[in-house]
Fold each of these.
Amino acid sequence: MGIVLGIESSCDETAAALVDSDRRILAQRIASQDDAHRPYGGVVPEIAARAHAERLGPLIAATLGDAGMGLGDVDAIAATAGPGLIGGVMVGLVTAKALAMAGDKPLIAINHLEGHALSPRLADAALQFPYLLLLVSGGHCQLLMVEGVGRYRRLATTIDDALGEAFDKTAKILGLGFPGGPAVERLAREGDAGKVPLPRPLLGSAEPHFSFAGLKSAVLRARDAGTYQAADIAASFQQAAIDCIIDRTRRALAAAEGATALVVAGGVAANQSVRAALVDLAAQHGLPFVAPPLPLCTDNAAMIAWAGVERMADPAFAADPLDFAARPRWPLDPDAAPVRGAGVKA
Ligand code: KG4
Ligand code: ZN
């Protein structure tokens, strides 16, 4: 039994949560910065870092207050230590270090991607290692065998854009505003996915990697053609992206020996059409499909606290040192072979 305070600040959500080892989310708060970034059509790192610095302290105090707790009731402090926008990560990590020092609590430096990767186990106690994880967020698009806490084998990654990035850029091209993913999903419901011919990059290729840059360029050309409705472009884009994900994930399943489930996590896992397509794929392979509830898909602190709980449950657990440095890049599988064109992605 233990209670972990989780802190998340790697992108544009300032978040704190208290999670216990019985999978209970005792309290959680998220302050979105959407309004601050909307005028720029994307996240501005400097604005994000400043907003985290202003909001995080009061947000943590309010989260503890929601649970009727003080720092003394917490068993450990877990914070995202990377990868992400370095200014924001530093704000969260420094705050966690200060609390750990003041309260004499262990500090747990969490890889944000590990937070996403383990988040399905917070909601589903039955989910066992190993599982095949499709991790689709604004900065990442990977297929990973999750073999245990701290044990991740990357089977595939994107050679250019992340899937969430492709959604966001499509939203920008179609003038749908920010944040883009949910806006594209909404508009796609009103469109015909068969109207606009769009490419499916890497479909059928032997390795299960992803590519979305060509799809994004095709969306731009479709808009500039001036002959298509925006809703049809959105629907056609979403379908092309889903066709790619399904084909690539099917390929990875062939290499995912022993996987107990097909699992999706990360912001794009909030997309209902993406989820529905993965449900079918899992059924075709006779595997259970697991996806966290929507609030656990997009960035949140409960998944960071939960990753802390999982780390503490390891018999070999050791707290991280108070001089642990924030990491702008931090691959989950440092041994994965580099992929052509993928040098800029963590
Ligand atoms: O995991 P997340 O909150 O932050 C990162 O770690 O990147 O993911 C954010 C990404 C954004 O690109 C956002 O547009 C996308 O997830 N997203 C969606 C949906 N909700 C969020 N994409 C498609 N459909 C959605 N409903
Ligand atoms: Zn994330």
Note: Residues 112, 116, 137, 266, 299 surround zinc ion (ligand 2) (CB under 6 Å).
Amino acid sequence: MATTLVTNIKLLVNTLEENKLLRGKDLARLPCIENAYLIIEDGIITGTGSSNEIQHPASKFSHIIDAEGQMVLPAWCDSHTHLVFAASREEEFVDKIKGLSYADIAAKGGGILNSARKLNAASENELFTKAWKRLEEVSKQGTGAIEIKSGYGLTVEGEFKMLRVIKKLKEKSALPIKATFLGAHTYPLEYKDNHQGYIDLIMNEMLPVIAKEKLADYIDVFCETGFFSPVETEMICRAGMSYGLKPRIHANQLSLSGGTQTGVKLNALSVDHLETMDDDAITTLAQSNTIGTLLPTAAFFLRMPFQPARKLIEAGCAIALASDFNPGSSPSGNMNLVMAMSCIQMKMLPEEAINAATINGAYAMELEKEVGSISIGKKANLIFTKPVPSLAYLPYAFGSNLIDRVMINGEWI
Ligand code: NIG
Ligand code: FE
């Protein structure tokens, strides 16, 4: 058995003793141990504590790592990404700078349909290779567990192809990965005036195969004006639920779409985005078990108002933070930037942001027993920082790469 002792840790962050989804005031409670040690056996955390109380002789360990005063955090849990895509969309980005509207870009064949066209033309191997590179990139940036959606296929074959790529990523990667079926991302052109036709395709052609081949863990719908209405969202989610797929929903991004209320009604695991919230949506979410996942880099990239994190926390909501990594609204999966933006622009405390990006993100993927904190029995998926004066320095020095190295299952990556 490989046993590792990590000594000389300046601060061991989020040493949660009992798993709990954090909401409201509890989000600011971040348990830490100063001047700490950590024991890892076969990739699992088996001991933590204060260095002056260490009771194990050094000879007991096959490896000793001197952290030399680094801080150690749980790796980020990114619970919302669209990591599988065929091509970037920087031409739309430039068009928007020049003043084109969303509608102009859609008329030019842009947006989600642009990504779908390119994805359907790409081979499964090509998609896998590209997605693998992105996964490697984000894990070096500290992501230690991730959710990945389909939704750029929008055809039976395209959606299956995406989900098979995600399945292969799950098999090959050391990171815990959850797969979400997002066939209801937008209506394909040929179903523009035949919504029920596309919903039938999802329910009758896609879902039975996805369930049989276990290609997804969750079902997602883009509930938004001009995309899927609350009624359509509910119909699609209920169909997914009948196959055992829990819903998680794109809600309240561009408008007060009713997505949050629909998600809560369906007992969704999470409602994600939440740029556009009113009191009713906030109260409904606060009184539910559903997690509100905030995606600040999407708000930033689309030049939208940031999510009302303070209002949500004060109302008692359970908040997670995620990257929304995708080519259209967040071409970055860097969770360090997500953290910084949530502190700078949404006024989350560093402790709140760290909790939202670790333990609550783990809950938003139902991975809280495996990851999300530095607790006995969880995976040693860890971030070792460069020398930093304090925890708040991490979101404060937003432009610096402050990660020295990342460990997944007790191994350096
Ligand atoms: O989460 N809002 C819906 N879907 C993605 C963006 C999709 C795209 O533009 O490619 C999102 O932001
Ligand atoms: Fe998204």
Note: The two ends are 20 Å apart (CA to CA).
Amino acid sequence: MRTQVGIVGAGPAGLLLSHLLALRGIESVVAEVRSRGHCEARQRAGVLEDSSVRLLREAGLADRLDRLGLEHGGIYLQFAGQRRHLDFRDLTGGRTVTVYAQTEVVKDLIAKRLAAGGAVDFEVTGTVVDRLDTDRPVLSYTRADGSTAQIVCDVIAGCDGFHGICRPAMPDGVATIREREYPYAWLGILADVPPSTDELIYAYHSRGFALHSMRSPTLSRLYLQVDPDTSIENWPDERIWDELQQRFALPGWDLRQGPVLDKNITPMRSFVSTPMRYGRLFLAGDAAHIVPPTGAKGLNLALADVAVLAPALDGLLRGDSRLADEYSATCLERVWRATHFSWWMTTMLHRSPGADDMETELQLSQLRYVTTSRAAATSLAENYTGY
Ligand code: RFL
Ligand code: PHB
């Protein structure tokens, strides 16, 4: 079998790349280890930057996003018994973010690819990428029906997330890894209850960080900082709500509770693997970099990578390698900005185990500063809404 671009992974990066290539008349095959249902239901990100919304709109993918997305002009930072609003529109000259779940982005992308006759193989096993240093790399896997695919490609795109096989397929010594693990994790719930807030609340509390996000006018998404070694069995719904109530408590304000529809724990990590290319293998999204979710950047970075990759591959396939040669450096500039911002938000808002009064006072001072200084607030707003 033959295709132009073999794509590993049907997450936001792989699916959007396949669509953007199709718009340029370039053929691709997407191989995905999970089922379609699993990809469409996996609870993850919820916030799109302006530039991501524009990208999806320009690619003809925003019908549902424009109807169902919730445009937010700011966030709340809560600490020391006060809740302060940061007005992004005012601070950045009109920029906003849009609350629209990654599950919906993925549903939109899968529907679009399948309607256009795009090749997306779900539930594959044994994915292997090979001959990456030639101009005919090979993508192989076994299909759900047991048949084998051996696809000769011009290029392979590794969009297979942090635990994928593409990054490790680079020969030893090619990649340099920079990594930081944080001594906490997020427990996230999806709750069948209208949000208790109009915009997201990021709360600093002596018991640990909490975040109130949402999925729709009737669905709330909430997160709690927890010990990375804890297990979900230790967290019955009552304990989660009790902890959320304490961390968000504010006189005159109520946190509405409802049935918990989904519950999971996510470790927190910063990770950047450079370069994002080896020969004819290009990495995009979480396959190359991970940020802790506090800055709401991961999904946006994945989309931004493939927006750079699609024209670069178009050029490469036509014999002009300039954009492809710049791909890694172009993406990494944005990746490092987002990596710094996510690390900064994370360390400002979380309680480290064993934190002393010095650390607490430094965090509180930083929080007071970003909520009172226009310069500091603008810096947060500029980074949060994207650049
Ligand atoms: P994905 O979504 O992980 O997709 C990779 C796909 O590759 C498949 N795969 C394979 N397929 C074939 N063969 C193999 N050997 C394979 N190995 C893996 C996987 O099954 C999967 O379908 O990566 P992608 O496309 O790079 O997208 C990245 C985003 O998913 C991620 O960065 C965000 O979800 C991060 N994130 C957030 N990002 C934001 O921009 N804003 C947010 O508000 C935000 N909140 C979050 C988040 C991530 C979270 N979790 C659970 C990690 C909140 C949470 C809780
Ligand atoms: C989410 O809605 O899932 C979400 C929102 C903001 C974040 C992280 C996750 O910073």
Note: DSSP finds eleven helices and 20 strands in the chain.
